[in-house]
User: Fold this.
Amino acid sequence: MVSVPELRQDEVSQLLSDHPEWVLTREGKAIIRTLQFSDFNEAWGFMNRVALIAEAQDHHPEWFNVYAKVEITLTTHDAGGLSIRDAKMVRAIDQLV
Assistant:
């Protein structure tokens, strides 16, 4: 697997500025967003759409789901933090919401 460079701090700041629903976690090495849907079916449908994008991009989120709540965490283990892969996933996920 090809190593991916970690985003610079200014790139992370720009990503968060462009996508204010996401917040830094894990000492700045990941970002997280919590979404609340109307019911489980809507949450599950959203997760299915994200899963298709993740598979196509070969970049899979960490997530947690309870009924209508979905929590998504993104990080790139190969980069040791956030990378362009995470930025692409953020954009794709935000377009689905």
